[in-house]
Amino acid sequence: MGFRDWSRGKMSDISDSYRQKSSNFGAMEAAVFGSEDQSLPIDKVRYVVIDSELTGLDAKKDSIVSLGAIRMVGTRILLGETFDRLVSPETKLTGASVVIHGITPDDVAEKPSIEEVLPEFLSFCGDDIMVGYMPIVDLTFLNRETKRLYGVSIKNPIVDVFALDKWRRQRIGEDSSGHPSLYDIAKSLDVPVKGAHNAMADAFITAQVLQRLLPVLIDLGIKSVGELLAVRNPGKGVDKFRFSFKFGNF
Amino acid sequence: MILSDVVEFLEKVPPFQFLKKGTLQMIASKVSMEYYPKGTEILVQSGPPSEYLYIVQKGGVKIFVRSGTDEIIIDYRNEGDTFGFVSLYSGDKSRTNVVAADDTICYLIDKETFLKLHDAYPAFAEYFLRSYLGKYVDTTFRELYDKGFLYRSGNTLPFTTPVGDIATQRLITASPELSIQSAARLMAERKISSLVVVDEERKPLGIVTDRDLREKVVAAGVSVEGPLRDIMTTSLVTIEVGEFCFEALLKMIRYSIHHLLVMDKDTLKGIVTNHDLMMLQGLSPITIAREIESRQNIECLIPISSEISSMVGLLLKEGTKASNISRIITELNERLLQRIIEIDLSEHGPPPVPFCWIVFGSEGRKEQTFKTDQDNALIYADPETPEMEKEAAEYFHEFAMRVNNALVKCGFPKCPANYMASNPKWSQPLRVWKRNFTEWITSSTPESILLSTIFFDFRPVYGDLDLGEILRRHLNQKLEQERFFLARMAATVVDNRPPLGFFRAFVVEKSGEHKDQLNLKISALALIVDIVRLFSLERGVSETSTLERIKALRGQHGLTDEFGLELEQSFEFIMLLRVLRQFEQIELGSEPDNFINPNELNTLEKQTLKEIFQLISRIQDLINQRYRLGTVS
Question: Is the ipTM of this complex over 0.85?
């Protein structure tokens, strides 16, 4: 656990500002994932669990240094279907981020640029539901690139394991305050946290977190993709959940 | 990173461990990982077939069948175990329920990948067939299996025996018009579980089994006056006489039946049941054991003892694990010894006081391969008076002389160091044995440590076994009081380093008859035996065999918990190297010894042996540290 998780904890405070900037997410997801898909059971659909490493957190100055992703079908993690690439950053690797990721400028100097990696990444993700720990952060950086290169944002539906876990804890009456890091959540669900701290490893941990959460969510009444996507805003999750029932398609 | 974890895991799981790294990497890339919260039904009896081979990565599952309201537990599978093979392979509905007994993570290998492996690596396929053969779902099978006959390793015979060889030839048939009751009576009289229904020309029309009587008559309330025709099963599953028994077993699994008609083209030759297949598993060792029981004098036992070593070749050829071979040999040698003693007692009259024949050394540890020197002794109950004591000493001396000589005739050479019951020193009343043991423990001289390593592996095999038990308890008690002894023993264990020099080169004999060779018994096997003996004495474990000791120590001994599995595998590996080498020597007509030339091993064997030596070194270092710190944990 390092700076990044600490910073993400902090960032949940500021993530609202990110969210406002990309407030068109909801509408776009609905457009891609039609009402028919929304009714699919959450233990049968395809997910792509993603994570990225960044040079820093300033959406204006910083950029992506690595991308990791792994595929799931329902609760099954397909260990051979992974995406793991280092990216040559557009911005300088700062001393601070080197310390966190252990990725030095030399490591990425020879690596492909985001222009080369992004199409591969997007084609790997396909139309699958994207899952991440506070993916809003990753998406902000990814969308900056897709907008720059293709003029559009990523349209996949997004699921946040942080929000899912918070919602779960609220529903079962556990303390849901605070901002547990990915590793905190992983440990609380008995997911082993070991090895290097990189995008691929964290995506795999996130996938195992989702794997543990899905059966619990089903028990708690979340059966369809639509219901899963409705668990979004950690603060107002419950209200929004009820709201979405009222209006069917949120 | 993710895939290398999978490869690392598979490397420890049989039969994957036998595959090359490249193959494991290919498998890993196809593997998916699934999580089952406790209580999840993974496979359901009579439900769809398994689509995967499941390997338990963490947690465990319970396998059971439902019969009416009863739940019969077949097995538990834990980390590193597999399940789902039978219905994956047969494509038939699942025959069992599999439920997560705990929060469980499994690696799943899809059918296509599995079948590819199955076709490409016959040994891989055979492993599954064999291991599931052993777990074949049937209660009668389970019962016999659980009785712990040593013959489990006979598992391999189904792969080499044609069905025709074991089929029941004297077939009991009936006409379709025979009444159900008469048929049931006939089955009861003949003690058979099935009846083949045939027409006038003896062409099979159907079969009636115990199950039909239960399900179609009793449960359904059908009149027993009715004809067999009404209840017989007409879809007959047959097998050709020449097919191997495991094919028969697979058919039984595939069709959920217990009987197969054995055909020679169109003619009915006999019937084979799952019971027959089961008996086959123990065929040869059982036959030998029975022969031993039936012999009335020592001379008649001599030819049998040579059968025992020829059986080893058969077992080896069929890929039986070395430890199982030793267990079979040990068991048969033990029966031979028991029979010799029985015959002697019947000829020379009963002993004046109860006695117990004990064996030690490799025999005590059930680790014999081919004929080994005798290592035995005798404990007798404390006689009440000096006169009685003198009489007992004389009786047992003569008795032991006769038994030792009979063993020599049966091919067990005398012990060069005279550790034999005929040596008056090792034929003593219980109190003397207790005194000896106490003295060895308290004096801790090099001689007493040596005697301890020999005698503390003792195992009572004939007579009043309680005498042995009492001595074992006495030993454990003394060890508790004299922890210093264990430190001395640890020092000798640590002293004997594995023959691996700098740069990981084997240290071999420099000159003499065995130049460039390495003694597997002294330089490898004994080191593991010594380590495990030390651990067992630390904990007062009464098992004597190295593998059983490791099992018994699990959960109560830190170092064993950490290295137990590796020690077990290392032990198996060296035993196998040794037994293969010895068998080779016997086939060439020379005397078996314990030497191998490491340069004649293949790369994998060399590598494995080196790793084993490093493991031993590491454990020795840990023992060293622990005892130097003065703590016995």
Answer: no
